[in-house]
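Intended use. Records like the one below are meant for learning the mapping from a protein sequence to its folded structure. Do not use them to infer anything beyond what is encoded.
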Amino acid sequence: MSEDLSPTAQKIFKAKYAKTLPNGKIEEWEQTAARVGEYVARAEKDPNKYLQCVADFTKLISDRVFIPGGRVLANSGTDIKNLFNCFVMPIEDSRESIYDTLKKAAEIFAWGGGIGYNFSKIRAEGAPVKTTGGKASGPVSFMELFDTTGEVISQASRRGAQMGILNCDHPDIMKFIEHKNALNTRNKRIMAEVEKAYAEDEVGMW
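Structure written out for the chain above:
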């Protein structure tokens, strides 16, 4: 039952997973379970097994014996067809590869997915670029570009989640570590939001 959810779980559920019904009301947990259970059961082609799957899936989810991933809860039975939380995308050492991945990443963010990347193939900052005669800006500069895109493109109150890594033997590894360690304006804002949420939780506002 929805009332069995903790105050924090109820707040997160309403903010990120519950849908607005045709009558304008917000789904309760049991209604979300039914929506997801019915949608997932469509994979079963036998009509008799389908109905049983709907019942089984709905009960498992409603009773919280099994809870699917966030995108399954949020997107099942909606116009958003993505049911995957996480993706991994390649990045090669070329503008074409970097911006092609960035373009695809923006679409994935719009559908609520998160992405992991390894930036280690991008040459170090200051390395020569033969085609232009210039110097490479390095992987950290491109990480900032991806970071900004993830902030700008959001869906259903969910910012684009990303994980960027750099191999420990990359020449720019120390710059990467220092950059990750320094709070920028956006991260300071997020930290303030988290601290405020914890403070509200402690006084029972959630």
